[in-house]
Automatic annotation (TrEMBL):
Residues 187-292 form the CdaR GGDEF-like domain. It holds the Pfam family HTH_30. It comes from Mycobacterium asiaticum. Signal peptide: none annotated. This is Transcriptional regulator. Belongs to the CdaR family. Residues 343-394 form the PucR C-terminal helix-turn-helix domain. Gene3D superfamilies: PucR C-terminal helix-turn-helix domain (1.10.10.2840).
Length: 402
């Protein structure tokens, strides 16, 4: 593409635009993330991939802006840094089509709208605006095209690398089992090195820091095996995710929490126990549901079992209606603070037995009763009439982390 250097006044305007957007406001980034996830439901349902695309969109914005601060109006080379290349690995290792690349076009549109707003604030000269917007439009489009081409090439390279190893065979076998394909149990067991009879508990282990040390994921999978007392089956689902199965009926969750305490970016979602191939499959899907709920609620909890979140996952599937339910059920108790909410939650959990609840909270019974009396003042309706709904609403708050 031939590239005509813009006039000096327009170069200076481009530099000013880039200087403003190279350090974007928090609300700009929130808008970028929101529009990308709203337009890509499949992306929003995958917390790891959504986070990776968000990081890559922000890296692209910074890359283009920094280039135009240095040399305003000059062509910007493709971004082949770690963020977009990580997207290529994620797409390839999940066996996906490059549908996620559409998120870059959405990000491009959001950034372009913001840049136009800034441009109109900097000048009202029609000729300068025309030249500025023409140059920036062509520059951004060429930059995104080049970056996407680089990602596409890397996806093909990653796929080629994967098909040469045993990883591809394991992942393919898991995919066949999860899809209910007619693969025989003996063949699947031979390819996985894992018995599909008996009990299974599935888990999803992932990292919030895709650029971090992924060896911690394997350490966490080993810790899960120790907590279950067995050797687990571990599959590399993506760069920052491991799918794990343990042939056991229980996992010592407290021991697992202790083991991963030193790995603050590691999170674990655990499915229920199931038997045979159907249980292997069902436990995995429930672990995925648990992971998705943690992501949807932006929960600070690092280890979660499906058995503990099943009802909350159902309630929060529609975020707006879930928020309305919490507001309507708790009233002023919603903003009353974690301590009083926990007193009420434990009281209900102990079947409204004050003595048992006080013992569990390591507090005096009279202290508990005072907290409950205060809660009654804050609730829209008496606790005795709404204890089930209040318990569910408080559980939503607990997992939501606020």
């Amino acid at each position: 593409m031939s590239w005509k250097r813009p006039s000096e006044p327009v170069r200076e305007l481009i530099r000013q635009c880039a200087q403003i957007t190279v350090n974007p406001r928090a609300e700009w980034l929130e808008e970028l993330d929101a529009e990308v996830l709203t337009a890509s439901p499949a992306l929003a349902a995958d917390p790891e991939l959504a986070a990776a695309v968000g990081r890559s969109n922000r890296a692209n914005m910074y890359f283009w802006c920094a280039a135009n601060v240095r040399d305003p109006g000059a062509p910007v080379p493709p971004n082949t840094g770690p963020e977009p290349m990580n997207i290529a690995r994620e797409v390839a290792r999940r066996g996906l089509t490059p549908f996620t690349l559409d998120a870059y076009r959405i990000g491009e549109a959001v950034a372009w709208r913001r840049l136009m707003e800034i441009a109109f604030e900097l000048t009202s000269d029609a000729a300068e605006l025309h030249e500025l917007l023409d140059v920036c439009s062509r520059s951004i489009s060429a930059f995104i095209d080049g970056t996407l081409a680089g990602i596409a090439a890397q996806i093909e390279q990653e796929r080629d690398d994967l098909t040469r190893g045993t990883h591809a065979e394991r992942l393919e076998t898991i995919a066949l089992i999860l899809d209910g394909a007619p693969i025989t149990r003996k063949r699947a067991e031979a390819r996985l090195g894992y018995a599909l009879t008996g009990p299974h508990i599935a888990a999803v282990i992932w990292s919030d820091d895709a650029a971090g040390d992924m060896a911690r994921l394997d350490s966490a999978a080993e810790s899960l095996g120790h907590a279950a007392g067995v050797r687990p089956l571990t599959v590399l689902a993506s760069t920052a995710t491991r799918w794990v199965w343990t042939p056991t009926r229980s996992i010592d969750v407290a021991a697992l929490r202790d083991s991963i305490d030193a790995m603050p970016d590691i999170r674990v979602a655990i499915g229920p126990c199931g038997d045979g191939i159907d249980g292997f499959r069902r436990s995995h899907f429930d672990a995925i549901t648990t992971q998705q709920m943690l992501a949807r609620l932006r929960s600070p909890q690092r280890v979660a079992r499906f058995a503990d979140i099943e009802l909350v996952a159902l309630i929060t599937a529609d975020a707006d209606r879930a928020n309305e339910f919490v507001h309507r059920t708790l009233g002023d108790l919603e903003g009353a603070g974690r301590e009083i909410q926990e007193f009420v939650r434990i009281f209900i959990d102990e079947q409204c037995n004050a003595s048992r609840a006080a013992a569990r909270l390591y507090t005096h019974r009279n202290t508990l009763l005072r907290r409950l009396a205060r809660a009654e003042e804050l609730l829209p309706r008496p606790l005795a009439e709404t204890s089930v709904n209040v318990a569910v609403a408080l559980d939503v708050l607990r997992w939501r982390g606020r």
